[in-house]
Input
Amino acid sequence: MAAPALGRRCGRAAGLWGGPRRAPPPLPLRRRAHEQARRARGAGGLLAAQYERGLFQEVFPAQSAEEQLPGLLEPGRPPLTAYCGFDPTADSLHVGHLLPVMALLHFQRAGHDVIAVVGGATARLGDPSGRQRAREPPSAERVRAQARGLRAGLRRLFENHRELFWAEGGGRLGRAALLDNARWLGRQPLLGFLGGAGGRLRMGTLLSRQSCQARLRSPEGMSLAEFLYPALQAYDFLHLHLRHGCRVQLGGADQMGNIMSGYELVTKMTGTDVFGITVPLITSTTGDKLGKTAGNAVWLNRDKTSPFELYQFFVRQQDNIVEKYLKLFTFLPLEEIDHIMEMHAKEPEKWGPQKRLAAEVTKLVHGREGLESAKRCTQALYYSSVEALEAMSDQELQELFRQAPSAELMLEPGMNVLDLCRKANAIPDGPSGYQKITDGGVSINGIRVTTPETVLILGQHILKNGVSLLRIGKKNYYIIKWLQL
Output
């Protein structure tokens, strides 16, 4: 699979077609490489730019994509339409969904139109890709409720991007649409589907897919519903092509088999060349794909993963992965990322790349206020900042201390530290509880107290927002809300 012509037209984008990816050059040489890549982006710039960032992993079919896509994506050409599907197997997106969303946003930033499809119909069957056993079939009402949650999450991402990451006068920002495939698949008669799309898809091709082979060899086998999943996803591509002119399908690297089925159906029924582009899968340190199935999902809905928890997930990334994540999960120019990494090499103790990565992702997912909330919680928990604690809302306190018991108390005249701890059921009765305080095991609002008879003082032990944060030992927190102060 040679691609010399594309390499000349798209710079380093030749690697998209299966060529070997070289190790990144040393930091001092990268700015020159970026300048060369920028000049090469005059044609098919989106492909070159996203290959350089590592976001686009593989393009299908290789030959026609090599011949046509760079020209179709040239600046000044009519916009293309690209889509990506998201099955509502939960009521929230998670971090594993962010890279397909980023791919849509980069298409949009390049002036192309994008469609995010929520799989309200396909979720009823369940995608067998990467699964060892079938999902429990969800009820129709549950799927509808979860689809509403996904649509809200996707809408929030597109709105935050437009408001916070797209500058006025930055050129055309492509249109974004949110659709649900239940609107067309739910109305498609079975015989009509089998006689139309079903007649164009080959059994041998479907059976040869790796996901299908693995399931057929498993003890549980594979249901007809799961086997037909790629056919329904292929029909999505056909429908979107016919109704919206869609010519590009985006998906995770594990979706290539389904993308190939869509390509086969669209080209056979319309004769038009269409394309698929995959993005990398995000995995844990053990190599497991991040997501609901593996039980390690970091959610994008605030009621499942708070802005603080999302921020901390990214700020804890190790040095060997943070540069890659800055390229994948942010819109920062590569030259700026290089500068961030150069500064990090000089001052690694500041964790500059991790903090910037966490800030950019949290702002995209939760907006400017969500980022400020994450920073307040960080200051309160890790730096014992009284000012941050006083500024925190009840929601932030509950998010930060999800497992912490809470109590509502009346401040009585002469009430002291020992009284507070006992009323909150934070220490045992008797001498052992008293000794817990004298031994330094109790803190109020981040300040250690060792005298049980210390009288509680407004502004010190009780914050301006009527809250006290009581800590027993290192990790046992209690949230105290004072009434009628």
Summary: The chain is about 50% helix and 10% strand. The radius of gyration is 27 Å.
